[in-house]
Amino acid sequence: MNHLKTGRVIQLEGLEFATHKETIGFKYDAGTKIQLAEEANLYGLTLSEYVDTILILPRDIIKQSSRKQK
After folding, report:
1. 45-56: per-residue pLDDT in tens?
2. At what angle do helices 30-42 and 47-69 cross, to 10 degrees?
3. What is the number of H-type helices and E-type strands within the chain?
4. What distance, in Å, lies between the first and last C-alpha atoms of the chain?
5. Is 44's pLDDT higher than 90?
6. 29 CB contacts (<8 Å, ≥6 apart)?
7. Rounded to an integer, what distance in angstroms lies between the CA atom of residue 35 and that of residue 63?
8. How far is the C-alpha of 31 from the C-alpha of 34, rounded, in Å?
């Protein structure tokens, strides 16, 4: 089992069968949140949609790059 610094257990069992998005949380300073919200607004996205895009896009690029190298 994986443990957070708070000692809470991360429940990973069954996540592979999830049919909805899962919530993850992390803290940033207010200035970063404001900057991300302003950028999201420029693209016509919500803050959540924008952060989701930022997190997923690099992973997709890495996967595509590794496929090309094979």
Report:
1. 999 999 999 988
2. 80
3. 2, 0
4. 33
5. yes
6. none
7. 28
8. 5
